[in-house]
Design brief:
Structural class: mainly alpha
Order of helices and strands: HHEHHEH
Strand order of the largest sheet: 1-2
Protein name: DUF2853 family protein
CATH architecture: Orthogonal Bundle
InterPro entries: DUF2853, Jann4075-like_sf
Radius of gyration: 13 Å
């Protein structure tokens, strides 16, 4: 297995165990590939749910630029809901898992 396959398996297990979501492996793979090399960098691979500047980056770079959504209060609510689903007590929120949950939340699977 490649390093990316190992990471995708780890993300799938996080989705099942921590989020209670049965992942669509095809979509999860595409979202992970879309994250690019950031998944291999310990700092970039995770999202801090309590850091407002980090959440603003997720909103601007992923929701608005990648998924093509319009900036609105709904985006913040969606991010808050995903953080709640992932679990506030979970320190390591993987970027690919957060992006996967956001893609599902906003029904933007067609982007991938």
């Amino acid at each position: 297995m490649s390093k990316r396959d190992d990471l995708i398996a780890k993300y799938a297990s996080d989705l099942k165990d921590k989020c209670g979501v049965n992942p669509d492996m095809d979509l999860l793979t595409k979202v992970t590939i879309g994250c690019g090399p950031s998944i291999y960098n310990a700092d970039a691979a995770t999202v801090s749910g309590s850091d407002d500047s980090e959440l603003a980056t997720v909103k601007n770079n992923f929701l608005i630029k990648k998924l093509g959504l319009k900036d609105s209060a709904d985006l913040d609510k969606g991010i808050a809901k995903v953080m709640e689903t992932y679990g506030k007590s979970n320190r390591n929120k993987y970027r690919a898992v957060v992006y996967y949950l956001l893609t599902k939340h906003f029904k933007k699977e067609s982007v991938y």
